[in-house]
Specification:
- The complex is a heterodimer of chains A (370) and B (946).
- In chain A, β6 and β7 form a beta hairpin.
- In chain A, α13 packs across α14 and α14 runs parallel beside α16.
- Chain A is α/β, with parallel strands linked by helices and 370 residues long.
- The mean pLDDT of chain A is 87.
- Chain A folds into two domains: 217 residues, 3-Layer(aba) Sandwich (Rossmann fold); 139 residues.
- Chain B is an alpha/beta fold.
- Chain B contains 41 helices and 13 strands.
- Classes of the chains: A alpha/beta (370), B alpha/beta (946).
- The interface between A and B is medium-sized, with 28 and 24 residues.
């Protein structure tokens, strides 16, 4: 394990990738390091039937066809746009794909309102320009341009957060596959090498902020990642991610399965309530994604570790849940209060156990917040 | 399973499997048992003297193998796994456009729980199915007998557990897929039976197969791993593989479930029937073919095989339930929804069938007369397909990968181009570049999924990847478009000749409309009954159909029919073609529509949950739709019985509304009232008089109900008394009524007033007392609401209600008034049609019409001068007038003092006199003082003032 706070996937899973590359006999498109089947295997984990000597754990949990469609898109001429609610694992999938395909998942442009075309193409080292004039040396290539030069995957996070003119700079990159540098007289075109493609992610909640133009839409294949609602796979995701986070914090603390169940159940209930709500005021602002669950659990664990008795308790979990989900006062608080009253209270009466403690913890936090 | 290891054709395979089991299994040889058991099952099924032909439903491979076998063997008897009582309907298939479903239907149950009614069983038939090939062969070839051997539809329900409503017994009917076209609901809630249902018995096995097959749905797995490899297989391979799969699913399933028992009972049933038939006809088993699901081919019941010595299965007699049989239209999506298949899978199977037929050059069998088909009549040839010794084809099939039939580039290219065109038509910004991308992605996806060529499912995934963006622009998304492209939903139609007599009669009687009612589109019929009086029959029929069919089937756009009203022009939206099933199911209930309607009306009035209202509704329908006085009398008498036996008055408002309407209709159209009407009124009078004292104190009975009771009693009173009722009944009832709730108290006061027991002045005093009593004021709105309800029974109370309401507005404190206002508004709206116009009219009469007049307006009930009413007698006016005219100066001075403007008017018209009289009357002291001053006798002033 490296001493990085968060190692990128290609570093973290370097062993696995090395191993897979060594056993990969499939046809590799362009300059891919792994064949499409091995990429899928890396992301979704191995099975006995794959006949590998070592076990490859599953890293992304979701429908297999999403991964297959994503891989196939990257092997084709088009860019890949992963679209979905916040916290559905879009960026994680993008990172895994980039790591598996080209061992470099760090060529990332983060789309924000302040992203400019320079961030996508290139900018200039001003002092060097003054000293030596405009040349390839004084040019600062963007991550996307670097990806083009190296024939690897570039990533664009939150594509719809950046403004339309910035988005449109991608059109020529995706269709012509080169960037021209008019400031230079010679060597003024950077051609993309085979293997270059773009994985973009977009948040479906941001729809309407900066809508993609039809021209850009045409150059991307959309893969919609839904919120995980299958309880079993959700439990696996939460466990997998929390363990990883705890390892990072060096926390030795067990998550009792009953508490994990309570967390999953409460999210499932809140999602059901949000689905039946008729107006925005009746649903929580949070998308209630799996990532949110992980956040709640991590928060509760850290709280128990540093301020509690090093045991995760239902009350702490409830406090963390309310604290994370109540973003608007009083709307969100009212919804959570209603949830505690109408759902948790009867359940606590019926099942007893840790639901009682969960109820008390939730009420205390709501009282403290309101 | 202790078959000797190397005996028979499958010895080598058996040995190989035993070795494999020994190598992989740790414990005792359960695995070996299963694996060798599979081979034993195959061995056994193929060794049977009667040739068993295993099939799977909606499998083109099965259908192809069936055609090949039938052409080769030309059997003389075909035993088919299908409910035996459906046989007579099968010949009607030739009049239909497939897919249709054979249906058994029973609405009058005998021997089943009444809650199950109506019972309906359907068996859909598609062209791309083995069973259709067998049926067509048998029905089209002279000398061939088709014998259905499965349990009857009656047994389907006999074998259902009694404590639950029977569900589809062949597979879980999960309504999946896009129901937007409304085709998925074509089967209604019928129980589906299918020939050759083949699916893993428990979820884990299915999940395992799907996971390792890298597919999402069972249909897709079947298509990839069984359907395509078997499409070109020879007869022996086909049979062996199918039995093997049937055996696999049979052995790997939860044991001891009730369903297993039923499956085995069905096998016993079928073998028993086959043996009985063979014994009865003496047919040669060599010339027979037994077609059943692969699952049943691998049967291990003791009755299996012609040589079995086990006794026949004891077949229970059918219940006395009268089953009706017919055909209803079906559709691919309905079949998919009913049997839990992947959306589009039946369409894909149909497309695969037609492709395979043209590729193989085989001539499939078709029923003559089938729409869109050419007649091919076969001839019996000498049987050439005698089963030879069984050779092991399984080892080869299992050991080698299926030979891919290569990438059909042209087909895939066609799909890509078509999907882009279809997408564009549905609002997507798809272009040729997308077609190329879909093509490329399909191939890449197939490669990633370890397939030699893209399946339709891969193609659909690729199309979704490349064309679907963040929003769906139209009604259909790309996945749905792919389904349409890959075959599309096909909806069957039952031909005229195969329809039940009722449906044929309906179509025949609607012929004058000049529309093709068998079309599935909505058609507009325009009926001008004045210029085309011959269309009156059509109109009658349409109104009856509207009553009997689901809402969308026939819909009046213009025109209505109610008591005493018939439109001169009508226009209708007719969608009988789309609702063919509903029409056909009506046909099971009777021979003509009138008969069915009469039955339904009778059932409504005589059913266990019938009420007086439902009976009166039936009476109304009988008058408007059937015009049958005999039925009206019968239903009316039933209404009287029901009313007399009712113990609640919940329906009183509805009863009142309906009987009023019916009375008005009869009084207007007949010279004398029908006997049942009189009986209803007298019974109702006595009934409501009896129930009134309890209703007014019962908390569950609303004020509306009590109001309606009183309404009945008062408005029917004269008729009731003329028919021999006694008014003392009512007086006694009122005397016994002691309501507690304020609205009911108010109602009762109104009733007392109506009967003359409570004068208006007294009523007014009571209200005034209520308003002055601070303890009661908060409840005053409730009294008012009672008075509002009293407008129904006592319409003469309207001025008083307006008065009370106005007083309440004027005097109620805001904290009481404001919360009450919304309640008042909603109450009034609820009773709007009847009460509000009354109140508004009365208020219009009472209040001044203009804003200016409002300032000087004095409410008529205020006790001072009622505006506009001559309150002074006319007699003294002339005298006073003369007096005032003689002394103008003091009069002008007094007028100036009092602030009265205007000059002297000439003439002795009545208006002037009245206004003067009013003036004098308003100020009697002044008048008297002036009279004294003028030296007039004192009675002159008094006379003027009085």
């Amino acid at each position: 394990m490296s001493d990085m706070l968060r190692a990128p996937a290609e570093v973290k899973y370097a062993d696995e990738l090395d191993y897979l590359e060594s056993v990969d006999t499939g046809v590799k498109p362009y300059s891919w390091r792994l064949s499409p089947r091995m990429v899928r295997l890396f992301v979704l984990g191995s099975e006995r039937a794959d006949g590998l000597d070592r076990d490859i754990p599953q890293k992304w949990f979701g429908d297999r066809s999403f991964v297959e469609r994503s891989i196939v898109t990257l092997a084709s001429d088009r860019g890949l746009l992963l679209i979905g609610d916040p916290g559905t694992g879009k960026s994680w999938l993008a990172e895994l794909l980039a790591a598996a395909i080209c061992r470099n998942s760090t060529l990332v442009v983060q789309g924000t309102a302040g992203t400019t075309e320079d961030h996508i193409k290139y900018s200039w080292n001003v002092s060097m320009v003054i000293a030596k004039g405009q040349s390839r040396e004084s040019m600062i290539p963007s991550p996307i341009m670097t990806a083009m030069e190296q024939g690897v995957l570039g990533r664009f996070e939150e594509l719809t957060r950046s403004t339309s003119d910035v988005q449109d700079a991608l059109i020529s990159i995706l269709s012509e596959k080169y960037v021209s540098i008019p400031e230079l007289n010679d060597d003024n075109i950077v051609f993309a090498k085979p293997g270059f493609s773009i994985i973009a992610t977009a948040n479906s909640r941001d729809r309407g902020v900066n809508d993609l133009s039809s021209a850009l839409k045409r150059r991307f294949n959309f893969v919609r990642i839904p919120v995980v609602t299958n309880k079993r796979s959700e439990a696996e995701i939460v466990r997998f991610r929390t363990e990883e986070l705890l390892r990072r914090h060096h926390v030795e603390l067990d998550v009792p399965p009953t508490l994990l169940d309570i967390l999953l159940q409460s999210f499932a209930d809140l999602r059901a309530a949000a689905a039946s709500a008729t107006s925005d005021d009746e649903k929580l602002e949070s998308a209630l994604s799996t990532a949110e669950q992980i956040g709640v659990l991590e928060d509760a664990i850290l709280h128990s570790q540093f301020f509690g008795d090093r045991t995760l308790r239902a009350g702490t979990l409830a406090g963390s849940l309310v604290g994370s989900l109540a973003r608007r006062s009083p709307e969100d608080l009212a919804i959570l209060n209603k949830y505690l009253h109408a759902v948790v209270e009867p359940r606590a009466k019926q099942d007893g156990g840790e639901w009682n403690e969960f109820l008390d913890g939730g009420r205390e936090t709501i009282a403290a917040l309101s | 399973m202790t078959a000797p290891a190397t005996v028979g054709a499958f010895g080598a395979l058996r040995e190989q499997l035993t070795d494999a089991a020994a190598a992989f299994a740790d414990g005792p040889d359960a695995l070996a048992d299963i694996l060798t058991g599979l081979v034993d099952d195959v061995d056994r099924a193929l060794g049977e003297r009667l040739e068993i032909f295993p099939v799977c439903h909606h499998s083109p491979a099965s259908a192809l193998a069936m055609v090949r076998r039938l052409r080769q063997k030309q059997p003389r008897v075909i035993y088919l796994e299908l409910c035996e009582d459906l046989q007579p309907v099968l010949t009607e298939l030739r009049n239909c456009r497939l897919p249709v479903a054979v249906q058994a239907f029973a609405s009058q149950l005998d021997g089943f729980p009444a809650a199950w009614a109506p019972l309906s069983v359907i068996a859909p038939v598609t062209e791309a199915s083995a069973e259709y090939q067998a049926i067509a062969y048998a029905l089209e070839t002279p000398g061939v007998e088709l014998v259905l051997v499965d349990r009857s539809t009656d047994h389907v329900f006999q074998w259902s557990p009694r404590d639950e409503t029977p569900a589809a017994d062949e597979s879980a009917p999960e309504p999946t897929g896009d129901d937007s076209e409304g085709q998925a609901a074509l089967h209604g809630d019928a129980v589906g039976v299918e020939i050759g249902a083949l699916r893993p018995g428990f979820a884990e096995l299915e999940a395992y197969l799907l996971h390792h097959g890298k597919v999402r749905h069972w249909s897709e797995w079947w298509d990839s791993y069984v359907e395509r490899p078997l499409a070109t297989a020879d007869h022996d391979t086909y049979r062996q593989v199918m039995v093997l799969i049937g055996s696999l699913f049979r052995r790997l399933r939860p044991s001891a479930s009730q369903r297993n028992d039923r499956d085995e009972d069905r096998e016993r049933y079928m073998w028993t029937r086959i043996r009985q038939h063979l014994a009865a006809t003496g047919a040669d088993p060599e010339e027979c073919l037994y077609i059943c699901g692969a699952f049943h081919a691998a049967s291990r019941v003791e009755q299996f095989g012609l040589d079995s010595s086990a006794p026949d299965f004891d077949i229970t007699p059918r219940t006395a339930t009268a089953w009706q049989y017919g055909l209803i239209p079906s559709s691919h999506s309905a079949i998919e929804a009913q049997f839990g298949l992947a959306p589009g899978s039946v369409s894909i199977a149909a497309a695969a069938w037609s492709k395979a037929v043209s590729a193989s050059g085989l001539k499939p069998y078709r029923l003559s007369g089938q729409r869109g088909s050419t007649i091919r009549r076969g001839r019996i040839k000498a049987a050439t397909g005698a089963a030879g010794p069984v050779a092991d084809r399984l080892s080869g099939f299992l050991a080698t990968a299926p030979t891919p039939d290569g990438l059909d580039e042209a087909e895939l290219r066609g799909w890509c181009v078509d999907i882009v065109r279809l997408a564009r038509r549905n609002g997507y910004l798809a272009s040729t570049a997308d077609a190329i991308a879909v093509f490329e992605t399909s191939i890449l996806l197939a490669g990633l999924r370890n397939r030699a060529r893209p399946t339709p499912y891969d193609f659909a995934d690729a199309a979704v990847t490349c064309i679907e963006k963040d929003v769906v622009p139209g009604r259909r998304d790309v996945r749905r478009l792919c389904e349409i492209l890959l075959g599309g939903d096909r909806v069957g139609q039952v031909g005229y000749d195969a329809l039940p007599p009722l449906a044929r009669d309906v179509l025949h009687r609607l012929q004058p409309l000049g529309l093709d009612l068998e079309k599935r589109t909505v058609q507009r019929a325009l009926l001008d009954l004045q210029s085309n009086p011959e269309l009156a029959g059509c109109s009658d029929l349409l109104w009856m159909l509207r009553h009997l069919l689901p809402p969308g089937a026939v819909r009046p756009i213009m025109g209505e029919r109610r008591l005493g009203h018939r439109s001169l022009q009508e226009s209708w939206d007719l969608a009988l073609g789309r609702h063919q099933r509903a029409l056909i199911e009506l046909g099971y209930e009777g021979v003509t529509i009138e008969q069915v309607l009469e039955q339904r009306l009778r059932r409504a009035a005589h059913g266990p949950d019938a009420t007086a209202v439902s009976a009166l509704t039936a009476v109304e329908d009988a008058i408007t739709l059937l015009n049958s006085p005999r039925l009206v009398d019968e239903l009316g008498s039933r209404a009287v019985e029901l009313l007399a036996s009712e113990r609640t008055v919940d329906d009183a408002p509805e009863v009142l509304r309906r009987i009023r309407r019916l009375l008005a209709h009869h009084q207007a159209t007949a010279s004398r009232l029908p006997a049942w009407c009189g009986a209803f009124v007298t019974t109702g009078y006595a009934h409501y008089c009896t129930l009134l004292p309890t209703a007014v104190v019962d908390e569950d009975t609303g004020v509306r109900q009590v109001g309606a009771m009183l309404g009945f009693l008062f408005s029917m009173e004269s008729l009731a008394l003329s028919l021999g009722c006694d008014r003392s009944q009512l007086e006694l009832a009122l005397a016994q009524s002691h309501p507690q709730a304020p609205p009911k108290v108010a109602l009762l006061w109104a009733a007392h007033h109506q009967l003359g027991m409570l004068p208006l002045a007294e009523l007014r005093t009571r209200c005034r007392e209520l308003l002055t009593n601070p303890l009661v004021v908060p409840a005053f709105p409730q009294y008012l609401s009672g008075f509002v309800h009293a407008l129904e029974p006592v319409p003469g109370l309207a001025p008083f209600v307006v008065e009370t309401m106005s007083t309440a507005f004027a005097q109620l404190p805001d904290p009481v008034l404001l919360p009450w206002l919304p309640t008042l508004v909603t109450t009034l709206r609820e009773h709007g049609p009847e009460l509000v116009p009354l109140l508004v009219r009365e208020a219009g009469r009472t209040f001044p019409g203009t804003l200016a007049a409002l300032d000087s307006w004095v409410p008529p009930w205020s006790g001072t001068a009622p505006a506009g009413a001559p309150a002074v007698p006319d007699r003294p006016v002339g005298q006073v007038h003369a007096l005032l005219a003689d002394h103008r100066e003091p009069v002008d001075a007094v007028a100036a003092l009092l602030g009265v403007e205007g000059g002297w008017q000439h003439g002795d018209d009545r208006a002037t006199a009245t206004s003067i009289a009013a003036l004098v009357h308003a100020h009697p002291d002044t008048a008297e003082a002036i009279a004294t001053l003028l030296g007039l006798p004192p009675d002159a002033g008094a006379g003027a003032a009085s």
